[in-house]
Amino acid sequence: MVLKLYGADLSTTTPMVALVLHELNVPFEYHPVDMMKGEHKAPEYVEKQPFGCVPYIDDDGFVMFESRAICRYLCRKYADRGGRELFPFDDLVAFARVEQGMSIETTVFDRAVIAMFVERVYKPMKGLQGSEEAYKEAEALFGQKLDAYEKILAKQKFMGGDTFTLADLFHIPYATRLKPRVNCDFMESGRPNVARWYKDITSRPSWLANKDGVKAISP
């Protein structure tokens, strides 16, 4: 049976999984979940994803949630279709470098960006007033984090080494929303190595196919 992806375009986690599926050229069906209508909190959805979040996959009866874990699973399952390159699990040093890059994305990049989105996106979505002072503080902190990225990327082409891996792919959904959603152009200006890396990862066919919304792959 064809793998099924249940998620929402407005999330940043659903595109992560879609990008991996496109990188590996794995056929899948996309089943949009309308979060604005609360479909992710419906009993039949929570039965599959007990936290009421997106996404989850149904891989021929095997149900799995947590986007980054799903991506690792897909890379292991489809190792010979490019998964080993995205997630080099059988080369200890390469594996460690990619794990390090993925950890940076989760604990440094993601947290810094979310703090910015809280003030200019998430609070207004709930009818609350965002704080420009808090936003400016978050933006300044994000800039400091990118200064460290600039140093890392001066020594290597990508965040996990010199080849594109999950350590880079995981950054794409939030990175591409910075300018249109919070008017922050830090990914493209002021730091040449970051700008070069950002251009590289957002020029990949997998992102170009999904940048306007998740696109399924027919069998």
From TrEMBL:
Domain GST C-terminal: from-to ranges: 91-219
Domain GST N-terminal: 1-82
Keyword Cytoplasm: no
Record EC number: 2.5.1.18
Domain of life (superkingdom): Eukaryota
Catalytic activity reported: RX + glutathione = an S-substituted glutathione + a halide anion + H(+)
InterPro entries found in the cross-reference section: Glutathione-S-Trfase_C-like (IPR010987), Glutathione-S-Trfase_C_sf (IPR036282), Glutathione_S-Trfase (IPR040079), Glutathione_S-Trfase_N (IPR004045), GST_C (IPR004046), Thioredoxin-like_sf (IPR036249)
GO cellular component assignments: cytoplasm
Gene Ontology molecular function, alphabetical: glutathione binding; glutathione transferase activity
Pfam families: GST_C, GST_N_3
Membrane-spanning parts: none
UniProtKB keywords: Transferase
Keyword Glycoprotein among record annotations: no
Enzyme class, first EC level, given as a word: transferase
Gene Ontology BP, a term: glutathione metabolic process
Name listed for the protein in its UniProt record: glutathione transferase
Organism in which the protein naturally occurs: Schizophyllum commune (strain H4-8 / FGSC 9210) (Split gill fungus)
Upper classification of the organism: Eukaryota, Fungi, Dikarya, Basidiomycota, Agaricomycotina
